[in-house]
Write a structure and sequence with these properties.
By secondary structure, the chain is of the alpha+beta class. The chain is about 50% helix and about 20% strand. A 5-stranded mixed β-sheet has the order 2-3-1-6-7, with helices on both faces. α3 crosses α4. It is globular and about 75 Å long. The chain starts with 7 loop residues before the first helix and ends in a 10-residue tail after the last strand.
Length: about 220
């Protein structure tokens, strides 16, 4: 029985197409994996992925990073007054602005609900000015349905030099305590050593959602 011989040009094209098809599949799967690690509303990283990336960045640059926690003020009232679509718009704006602020040297994530976080590299001498810029950026009104939504965000920041620790959970706890010290005040609070000593339950400031324990 005669064997069908393929032209050499066809064999050459096939040899190229096979690895290209494999690479295309790899690219598609990787893109889907990254999308699964992103919060669909804010386009920032989900909590676990944010924590992993922040930890690696902190380990590489322990003397040049600053962590920020951002919590939307009066978020329930915003939803009740303007609708849930407006609340989603506000959260998306928070994510976009944090991502813009961190730039290529940092990472932003959504921790849950109306709370986001960011960690980025900033030289210590520039951290104060960059944090002031963030405070102004986060409170700009948000365009929504041919109108402007007011946006109020409480911010707390923690840097290893300011609290004497390079431990990520400690930085987050200190930033959380600092944020609630200035809650609804319209300015960013930078954590100091005493914020590390704030009482906590399950790794979160006492009284925060999620800290209740069984009697």
């Amino acid at each position: 029985m005669a064997t069908l011989a393929l032209p050499r040009k066809t064999l050459h094209i096939t040899a190229i197409a096979v690895p290209l098809a494999g690479w295309t599949l790899h690219t598609v799967l990787r893109r889907r994996l990254i999308q699964a690690q992103r919060d669909p509303l804010t386009s920032t990283w989900r909590r676990e992925e944010f924590t992993d990336r922040a930890q690696r960045l902190l380990e590489r640059h322990p003397d040049e990073v600053v962590l920020v926690l951002a919590d939307a003020d009066h978020f329930k009232q915003l939803n009740d007054r303007h609708g849930h679509a407006a609340g989603d718009t506000a959260l998306a704006a928070m994510g976009t602005r944090l991502t813009e602020w961190t730039g290529r040297h940092g990472v932003a994530g959504r921790l849950g609900g109306d709370e986001c976080a960011a960690l980025t590299r900033i030289e210590p001498r520039h951290q104060g000015l960059r944090l002031e810029h963030l405070a102004r950026l986060m409170t700009r009104p948000v365009p929504h349905s041919d109108d402007l939504l007011p946006l109020a965000v409480s911010l707390g920041a923690a840097a290893p030099a300011g609290i004497g620790s390079t431990n990520l959970p400690t930085l987050m706890r200190a930033a959380d305590a600092a944020m609630y010290e200035g809650k609804h005040q319209g300015f960013i609070v930078q954590a100091r050593p005493h914020h590390v000593r704030a009482r906590s339950v399950n790794g979160r400031r006492e009284g925060r959602p999620g800290t209740a324990t069984a009697a």
